[in-house]
Amino acid sequence: MNDKVEGTLVLGGLLEGRCANGPAPEEKLREWIEFMRTLGPRFSLDCSGSSFSLLPDDAPASTARLGSAPETAIAQAVEQLLGVLPAEDRGNVFSTLRSAEYRPKEEVQSVYLVAPDGAVKVETRVVDAQTVAPATPVSIRARVRYALLGLAIAALLLGVTAFFVDVPGLLSRLAGVVKPVDMQELAVDAAPFAAHFRIVEKELATDGRYLLLTLERGDRFPRTDAELQQASERAEGVLSDRLAIEALARGYVRCELFDPDGRFFSASTHRIAGLRTEESITLAVPLQSNPKRRLGSVRIGY
After folding, report:
1. 225, 224, 206, 203: which is closest to 214 by C-alpha?
2. What residues contact 173, with CB distance under 8 A and at least 6 apart?
3. How much is the pTM?
4. How would you class 35 by CB atoms within 10 Å of its CB: exposed for 0-12, middle for 13-18, buried for 19 or more?
5. What is the rounded CA–CA span in Å between residue 288 and residue 76?
6. Of 79, 74, 64, 119, residue with least CA distance to 97
7. How many angstroms separate the CA atoms of 231 and 236, rounded?
8. What is the pLDDT along the chain (302 residues), one digit of tens a residue?
9. Residue 202 bridge partners (DSSP)
10. Per-residue buried b or exposed e for 196-232, using 16+ beta carbons within 10 Å of the residue's own CB
């Protein structure tokens, strides 16, 4: 039996669904799995024709990247999963997904239900539990000792490798293409939606494969059909405003990536309908795998 370690979460159950008009979008589902892995929880995918199932790993996962309310982050992630499916298939998703989060002397139990209209509902309760504190981190002295040992081994291997590989030339080439993205300098342009939401945080996922953008809802974000109708009427005659409102009505935006020279190289679509009920959501924007196409700027449009 696993100890209930404080600051961890265990998932159970599964998510399964089917696509009536074609095969399940396996590539999109795997992108979602990779996004969840950056947050901590891990899933495995099984696709069979038009049906799919997502089974969570039952090993404890850290809640450090899920925020103070992990059940809310997981619910938003399930909403993003539904967003990759055609609208008519979202009601075909069945969920028995559940989580148990361990806090000092208590366990937060949550179940995640998908309604026939595709909405995600969370039911949560808190019960008393016998939990244990997380393991004490390795001391700084021990980490320094391990680091010095690693450097000594690396130097030895480098000396051997130098006989067979042009190491200086290789390092020179890598220096030209492997440059980390500077979050302070990265420009994220969401001008078409400036009146409706704002970017409050931008960071790289731990594996460097996703740009995580946190969007915060503004006062003029239309949350109901009536507010959408009013916003649409105000936008009449202004094409850019009308296109922005249409994107909000659909619940999706397009993220375009550009290199430092302003050349477009990638785009992806993301569901933002969650802002109708939540104050903020996080978009996981996949980055170009080719290191020669370094990220320079991001534009969010319709």
Report:
1. 203
2. none
3. 0.50
4. buried
5. 24
6. 74
7. 9
8. 468 999 999 999 999 999 888 888 898 999 999 999 999 999 999 998 889 999 999 999 999 999 889 999 999 999 999 988 888 899 899 999 999 999 999 999 999 999 988 889 999 999 999 999 987 766 677 677 777 888 878 777 666 655 555 555 555 444 444 456 778 889 999 999 999 999 999 998 877 788 999 999 999 999 999 999 999 888 877 888 899 999 999 999 999 999 888 888 888 889 999 999 999 999 999 886 555 567 889 999 99
9. 213
10. bbebeebebbeeebbbbbebebeeebbeeeeebeebb
112 within 8 A of 120, measured Cβ to Cβ: yes
- Please identify which residue in the block is written with the tokens 């892995």: 37
Give the rounded distance of the alpha carbon of 117 from its chain centre.
Answer: 23
User: At residue 52, what is the residue type?
Assistant: F
**Alpha-carbon distance values, 110 to 70, 122, 223, 275 (Å):** 10, 7, 26, 21
**Geometric angle at alpha carbon 274, from 269 and 277, rounded to 5°:** 165
